[in-house]
């Protein structure tokens, strides 16, 4: 038994005799052979036949090989294979890794080491419009599950030699490719180092989605607020890179991460920069107003209806009192019933087969809306409050921020329910304390308001025209100031 | 951990104790009180809103938009407790629109009521204050047209009449009374009356087209000196009181010019008072607008001057008559004593009135067809 056959046996052993493990042994001359091994499920078999085995066998048959007189070696084989992405390495573990990456490993019978050639299948969905972040004006391309395609999408928009990609392999079992991207001439060294350090420090068996990485590298675990932007829009990531942020791409998911971020960036959308500054500013205010509505409307309603009726104008008080005449529950219970029912419907709407969605929408609208009011379980004003809040939740450009709003909203509702406006004010103070205590990779979460950075306000509370945005945000501590 | 849990539970429970659901409240829209001068017993009336009757949707529900609850006791503080004997909901006063006191109560002094209202944290001191010109039970037990809540009806009337005032409202809130109580200048509070001796007790009254038959009516004002009612002013006297005290800046005056009536609206009335050796001088400037002109001659520049002169003279004459009336009744309605002048009755008050006509209407010449034929 030669070295090659032993190596093949060891590799096969390590892969657990997988059914897609294929080993083709091709005789070269005399007793010399080459073992071509690969995992059939993740490679293109035709390429192995045409680009690897066929040239080698033909060369040996014609006696054209330079090492014709000697036993075949990986170096000699490499010169025969017309594939660009190929490497020569040694060791069973390395060979196994190459196989799992979708490469074909050629092991010579009487020579150490191996040649690996990239023949991986590229079966990924095509680039489509991002489903969670659609836009009216702006690029329609979204990231896909293949990290290389995603890198290409960034490179296509950012043709700069300063764009740096750093590769990581994370996950002892999944060995997921993770890529950190930043602009070498803009991004702050400290922030880049911190990203690198945190990515290096991840000790996990698997990374299946960007959320895995996000949880590992975010600053504060016990917080509902996102501390990294997750987006599937390459234009959004490029904009972040140009402002000195660092992006993280993860193989197998179309969601990329970017940081550091601030609270107010959660109100901005890439689309803000694709339309006139005044319109973008108004839309940003609308989003902020919707955030305030979504966290305060239900809690204020509960506090006022249950504790502070004197705050209402008399006609409104009478109207609400008339609606609540037959309602058997206190306002806080009524609100919780409605909101939990709505959350159930929303969750069901997300998970259920699309074909059943319409039925649930009808049932939801009838049960939660009309029937509940007519039966006297809830008041019509509560339905208005729930609807307004629910719609306001969806206006957030970042989905995870919308979820954070819902959590804050429930906490505020409970506090308003047990302590009225005093409870609500306690909740507001706790929220502020929490928000100012968050750091995202060293950046203050509430910047540029706390601490106050006047120049950063031009792209926070308003979006000034592009001509006036001559400086990069201070919060990212970018290497250069001017754009 | 257990202790923290218990503390949190207690904190939450202490919050819930304060909870009063909106449908557990008896929302008082109008309040009234009477005091028997012999026994000193107070009768309190609470007009409570019936919310379901006020919404259009519930056609099958009761039609009465308000119900009046009546209680009698010897002290004001006992009423909240007493309401629990008959009222199925907790008394809720912050939305009370007006408080009506009987004339005999007002004549005994209303300091106790002002103190009671000001002491209570959940009662608003911007509630307007009125005196009943008819039996209080008639007023409080009557339904009102157009506005289904009598409290709101009365408040709307007051708000409309307050449009000519400099501040936008008549200074008749309880807090105005509390402030004015310490001055020598008497305060004037509107008197609300009822046009019928019988109250409109049921909602069938709302089917009657003739509103004047049974409705609320404002008739002059009650004069209060140091928190006690001392007399009455008629509608014109009340208006003059507010004009000369710089509260009212807009009113309509009827003049007789060349033997015919001319109604002018005096607006932007600026009143300046000056005390000097010769007495008190009022300088009054007003902008006039003709709202009704029955003269047969066209309006010329000379005619405009006639109207202005007539207005100036009439304003002066009426104001002098008002000063004489106040002195006769021993009411310092101009607040001269508040300037430190004790012998206020002998202070000579002079009026210098200037007016400018700013608008004469769409036509200068009247239609004279009937007279010409």
Largest interface: A-B, 23 and 26 residues
Overall pLDDT level of chain B = 86
Distance between the termini of chain A: 65 Å
| Structural class by sheet pairing and helices of chain B | alpha/beta
Total tally of structural domains of chain A: 3
Strand line-up in the sheet with most strands of chain A? 1-2-4-5-3
Gross morphology of chain A is: elongated
Low-confidence segments of chain B: none
Largest sheet of chain B: 9 strands, mixed
Indicate the mean pLDDT of chain A: 87
What is the string of helix and strand elements of chain A? HEEHHEHEEHEEHHEHEEHHHHHHEE
Helix-strand layout with pairing:
The complex is a heterodimer of chains A (483) and B (373).
Chain A: H1 3-14, E1 21-29, E2 32-39, H2 45-62, H3 74-78, E3 86-89, H4 92-100, E4 103-108, E5 114-118, H5 147-157, E6 163-170, E7 176-183, H6 189-200, H7 210-217, E8 229-231, H8 234-242, E9 246-250, E10 256-259, H9 277-306, H10 314-323, H11 331-351, H12 354-374, H13 380-394, H14 399-437, E11 439-440, E12 443-444
Antiparallel strand pairs in A: 1-2, 2-4, 3-5, 4-5, 6-7, 7-9, 8-10, 9-10, 11-12
Helix pairs in contact in A: 1-4, 5-8, 9-13, 9-14, 11-12, 11-13, 11-14
Chain B: H1 2-17, E1 25-35, E2 42-49, H2 51-54, E3 66-73, H3 79-83, E4 90-92, E5 98-102, H4 103-108, H5 111-119, E6 128-132, H6 136-140, H7 150-161, H8 174-180, E7 187-194, E8 216-225, E9 228-233, H9 235-244, E10 251-257, E11 260-276, E12 279-293, H10 301-329, E13 349-359, H11 369-372
Parallel strand pairs in B: 1-4, 1-5, 5-6, 6-7, 12-13
Antiparallel strand pairs in B: 1-2, 2-3, 7-8, 8-9, 10-11, 11-12
Helix pairs in contact in B: 5-8
